[in-house]
Amino acid sequence: MKKECLPLKNEEIIQQLNLEQKCALLSGETVFTTRGYKKAGIPSITLSDGPNGVRKQAGAADHLGLNPSVPATCFPTAATVACSWDPALGEQIGQAMGEEAAAQEVSVLLGPGLNTKRSPLCGRNFEYFSEDPYLSGKMAAGYVRGIQSEGISACPKHFAVNSQELRRMASDSVVDERSLRELYLTGFEIVVKEAHPKTIMSSYNLINGTYANENAHLLQDILRKDWGFDGAVVTDWGGSNDHALGVKNGSTLEMPAPGGDAVRELLKAVETGKITEADVDARLDELLTLVFDTHAAVENHSREFDADAHHALARRAAAESTVLLKNEEGLLPLAAGTRVAVIGDFAETPRYQGAGSSAVNSIKVDTFLECLKESGLNSVGFATGFDRQGKPDAAKKAEAAALATKADVVLLCLGLDEIKESEGLDRTDMKLADNQIELLQAVQQANPNTVVVLSAGASLETPWLTHCKALVYGALGGQAGAGAMVDVLTGKVNPSGKLAETWANAYEHTPAKDNFAGKGRTVQYREGLYVGYRYYQTAGVPVAFPFGYGLSYTSFAYSDLKADAHSVTLTVKNTGNRAGSEIVQLYIAKPDAKVFRPAQELKAFAKVQLAAGESKTVTLTLDDKAFRYWNTKTDSWEVEGGSYEIRVGASSADIRLTAVVEVAGTEAPNPYAGKSLPHYESGKVQSVPDAEWETLMGCLIPEDKVRIDRNMTLGELNHSRSPICWLVWLVLHTLLTASYKRGKPDLNVMFQYNMPLRALAKMTNGAISMGMVDGIVMEAKGFWIIGLCRVIVEAVKNVILNVQLEGRLRNS
């Protein structure tokens, strides 16, 4: 079928360029800048990391957050702000980040991240909003609107099905089409349709055998045709596999700076007919639209911003996102003058953001100890209590227990250390360090009035919960998180946050435990639709804290529910004695469904502020996503007709009101008729047999074995047939193992270990060509002399060709 040619917005400029110039513009010039071409009036623009603050690097740039960047406001992470359930707050944060980006001459802010949290062990979960795509999409849309209000571009990421860090550049996410559409793409759909981002970032991984960045089904059929996206697609850094196929199938800009080899690849692809010049023009038109739109905004923007106002916003955001998980005997809030003992290393050195490319060089960072001085509380002292890296320290524990006896209340600051949550590696468990739990037990024996203040970007197992009277989850609160926590503890702020992900009792209870970050490249999403609360509630698995859960210092009553298939209204009353905010959640259920589905799914929510004794009418709209499901037989969204339950409550497990509405169906055939899918019908998907999984997918389980090719990772070189490659593997493996033994995994070595050979040509600014990579592959296959000779010949050739290319681009 012939492609439909759309008119180019920048046709006049594109016609001035020869093919080589066009191809050169479709890849970066440096790690974070695009190529410019002054003769045609095309400026270079800067892209910068920015899920929770701008990370524009001033000196040598890298994509892992290893080198320092220009100071900026570090806002709470997405996992934190998601607990506010407040897209308007997200929009305010986005606007502030957009302002800082434009002031620093950044045209594209690489964020927000909104991948669905399939497993609590994903090392990058702190960068993502939720296990629920509806909540993720609504929050991310707020961020995008805010960022782009400053004239620059947001860049939602990582599109798509990017759920683990292990082998992220070479793993294949094998997922059935219905789960893909309903769980892993719906959040992105909401963002694209409601916030209209100018760019979107493709993910590293393959999806059902095809790399996301060259996946026509993802980038063309769904993103552009179904959703109407007309912006630019940017690769993740080093995320391009076949640049030509990327350009053909909808990928606009290859980053970071692959050098002349990428230009020659596109030229050759046009010459051989693999792609057409029209493909190049279409991608260049998208890029130029982005460049001109954002460059003008940056040029006209002030180079200043109000750092104090942004710090205040960061503090308010952290406070509104704090979740009160336990409060026995109304221990909190603490009255002025209460004698408190502060214990825990995090009180002195806060854990307020994640590690990796999102790490912000914060303008200033509040500490709990400093903020406590202005709280009105009476501190009787501070003890570090534990070693941050988990080493037992009896003296520190004894000192803390002794201090605890001198106070009315103990404020015990616990959490995960920096290396437990980082881009580049996944968590190995959901546990607090043993030395922190032992400290908690000792402190609680000394003083039962113990409040645990928890800093972590993802859920934890809480078997220690009985050892504290109160538990306050601050997540990763950004540079002002400590002050926000003091505001909540003292009642200056009434906590209103609610969990955006379920907290399981144990990792062994999670649905994807057998298919997450395993040994092979193939990652099987066998749990299907049953992620997070969709699994626990359908399969009847008890949890520690359910999705949407959070306490308040006041109480709320729900009444007067009225519902139809389009909207729901109800009355919410603050029945306590202090002002507070309630997050009203609406779930849809169809107990008699013929097409299997989770027990219930979030379809609307609203945050309502109420004075003591005040009542308000809340209206929730049911949009086009409320009743739909993806039908693999009709290859479209369908609605099963009949009766649906509207469930409104304070959490997924605390439903206060219900109603039944009749919904007209689309009369589509049941895609599962005649198929045996007992595990998917019951939701008990921890151990789905191969045959049932293949039935759901409609194909055989793909073969999973190491192949010696461009996409062999450096960590797989032990499977090669070359002593040189074995030596490279041994060095990396030894360095990585040693860093783990020290308790500080080396992120740079980890990245290299999991990096495919092709990335050598994508991440070295043109120093290594794909021809050289092919020589390395020959070496790995056992062609020792020929492989080395090819590497040398291709290296010389690459240097000469790069010099010639840059000369032509400068002089043409």
In a few lines, what is going on in this structure?
The relative contact order is 0.11.
Written account of the structure:
The protein is an alpha/beta fold. The protein has four domains: 18-300, TIM Barrel (Alpha-Beta Barrel), CATH 3.20.20.300; 317-497, Rossmann fold; 552-680, Immunoglobulin-like (Sandwich); 714-811, no CATH class. It has 24 helices and 26 strands. The strands form eight sheets. A six-stranded mixed sheet has the order 9-14-13-12-10-11. Helix 5 links the parallel strand 2 and strand 3 (153-154). Helix 2 crosses helix 9 (260-272), helix 2 crosses helix 10 and helix 14 runs parallel beside helix 15 (434-446).
Question: What descriptors fit this protein?
Answer:
24 helices, 4-stranded mixed β-sheet, 812 residues, 4 domains, Immunoglobulin-like, 6-stranded mixed β-sheet, alpha/beta, single chain, Rossmann fold, TIM Barrel, 26 strands
